[in-house]
Amino acid sequence: MQNKQGLYTANSLCMLIVCSILLGAFYFQFVLGEHPCPLCLLQRMGMLGVILGLACNTWLGFRNEHVAIVLISALVGVTFSIRQVLLHVCPVP
Q1: Are 15 and 54 in contact (CB under 8 A)?
Q2: Which of 12, 58, 83, 93 is the most buried (most CB within 10 A)?
Q3: pLDDT digits (tens, 9 = 90+) for 52-77
Q4: DSSP category for residue 42
Q5: Ramachandran assignment for 33, one of left (phi > 0), alpha (psi -120 to 50 degrees), beta (any other)
Q6: Backbone angles phi, psi at 92, to 5 degrees
Q7: What is the value of pTM for the model shown?
Q8: Are 22 and 45 spatial neighbours (Cβ–Cβ below 8 Å)?
């Protein structure tokens, strides 16, 4: 039972970390007036998917489907972030 409590704690901590990152992004967007680029918006959607999967793990119990939501969302977010970094390193003419 102790291991299960640790998993719930880890999921909750990961949700808190990703939510704080998104809150920082929303602060820059809405308070400071910095408009995000389309790739940034797609990365945020990936983060929201990660939060959704972690929340499902925490509230509905640990299932493979919830972990799949987290992994697929994280891979989508990583794909868009790699694209954004490559556009800065090797800009398209």
Answers
A1: yes
A2: 58
A3: 999 999 999 999 999 999 999 999 99
A4: H
A5: left
A6: -80, 130
A7: 0.88
A8: no
